[in-house]
Amino acid sequence: MNIFRLVGDLCHLASILLLLLKLRASKNASGISLKTQELFLAVFVCRYLDLFTTFYSVYNSVMKVLYIALTALIIHMMRAQSPIRGTYDASQDTFLHVKYAVAPCAALAALTMLVQGFDVRDLFWNFSIYLEAIAIVPQLIVLQRYREVENLTGHYIFFLGAYRALYILNWIYRSFHERGYKHHYVVYFAGIVQTALYVDFFYYYAISKYRGGKFSLPS
User: Fold this and answer.
1) CA 165, CA 177: separation in Å to the nearest integer?
2) Are 188 and 171 in contact (CB under 8 A)?
């Protein structure tokens, strides 16, 4: 464990908690993409299958369970909990996530297995890596349509992007300081793609904080 991974994990957890806070405090799911949350739940479930087979540490297990449980709770709140479910606008959350995210990432994971050698758990793990890289896309589309971003929603996406950026620093740090560290180019490629998707958002987020006004995205 190094400082970049630790802070990255805490940013990831903070992003989920901020989204929960927004839903509980405002009782409003406006501007939130349910499809992004469903994609992230698929990411966590597929990646953390080792919860049932391998124990690394209490910290590792607790963080994995929290990611799955809290994301499932967010989905439940948006789908079934009144009055929150009545504020979710499905007409703005129209990205076909199964067709344009799940299916291509599954195909890419299968293709990766043809190169690396087939293993069921590795197949799900690679699928989760590819899917996480683009899971934020439905959320970014929703924000682009709403244009004005609520503070807690903006903070949620900022911390989510910060988590991935810190993990890139974690990989760089480990490559220089961890003896026997093995490079994983699938992870590197997906992480860079995922971070790049946040660049435009980070720019307007920083501008809004500097000027002290409302956070709005351009049309």
Assistant:
1) 19
2) yes
